[in-house]
Amino acid sequence: MTDNGMLDKAAGKAKEVAGDVAGDGKLKGEGLVDQVVGKAKEVATNVKDAAEDLAEEAEGVKEAAAEKIDELAKDAEGAAKEVADRVKHAVEGK
């Protein structure tokens, strides 16, 4: 299970409210800090997920490029053979 910050945010909110109700500024401050930590974890998780998605997309692009290169190489090979045959026929007078 990935820690996406939800627990920190919830616990932080609870501390903030408890601190507000009890008039305990320190507890309220701890709650606010916990919420910030939770948000930071959430952002870090989102960045990690986005990076993984980009890596997957890049792999797909890489595979498509490799297929296109193979296709172009085969086309170029065929064209080179055709040119070679034409030159050979021209030289032999056929």
Automatic annotation (TrEMBL):
| Keywords per UniProt | Coiled coil
Cite the CsbD-like domain residue spans from the record: 5-53
Q: Which InterPro entries match?
A: CsbD, YjbJ_sf
Q: Which domain of life is it from?
A: Bacteria
Coiled coil spans: 44-82
Q: Which family does it belong to?
A: Belongs to the UPF0337 (CsbD) family.
Q: What is the name listed in the Swiss-Prot or TrEMBL entry for this protein?
A: CsbD family protein
Species source reads Collinsella ureilytica
Record lineage: Bacteria, Bacillati, Actinomycetota, Coriobacteriia, Coriobacteriales
